[in-house]
What does this fold into?
Amino acid sequence: MKDLALSIKGLKVKYGVIEALKGIDIEVREGEVVALLGANGAGKSTTLRTISGLTEATEGSIKFYGKEITKLEANDIASLGISQSPEGRQIFRELTVEENLKIGCFTVKDHKQIEDNFKRVYNYFPVLKEREAQMSSTLSGGEQQMLAIARALMSSPKILLLDEPSLGLAPLIVQDIMRIVKEIKEEGTTVVIVEQNASQTLKIADYAYVLELGKINIHGKAEKLKDDPRLIEAYLGSH
It folds into this structure.
């Protein structure tokens, strides 16, 4: 069996009196794509932000290859090899494509590794190579999403966290993004992807967890969940 890259046990997060996560358990094995699915407000983004150290856990444990990271600062978690492409892209619009990518490799000290990472992301996203001197604000929505993912990959992460990468994009662009996520996995990077677009995500995921109001109500192998009537009814629309 593959190594356990990420282990979440009994994770609770509160925003004031609101309990966003109500004690969830998630396992992510090395080299897999694990999907967190669910409607708006289910707790998906909160889960990613808590893994990254951007949101504080109220209770529970997050372990990265057996190391407890629940109380670590976000920059220390990034240095260990967890990188996030945030919801809404959050690129630096006033910087060029290349400058955005350079910011992504702040934890990498080896110049050869940085060069290799540039080659790798330009291989995934050739359009970014064409646009490397352009201001990021001039990119289309799909190109900005590609830049956000590429920037997260520049730190050579062991685990890539993707928050709503298909949000607001045309269906063809979504297919492109999902194909590239699959390629990233095939080259050895573990991926945790948060999505509302269940049908596209289940095509590329190995395992999936479905969150509803801060709890996991369904989980299992992605290929089986595709045909689960509860999932179809709740997230794909019954048809």
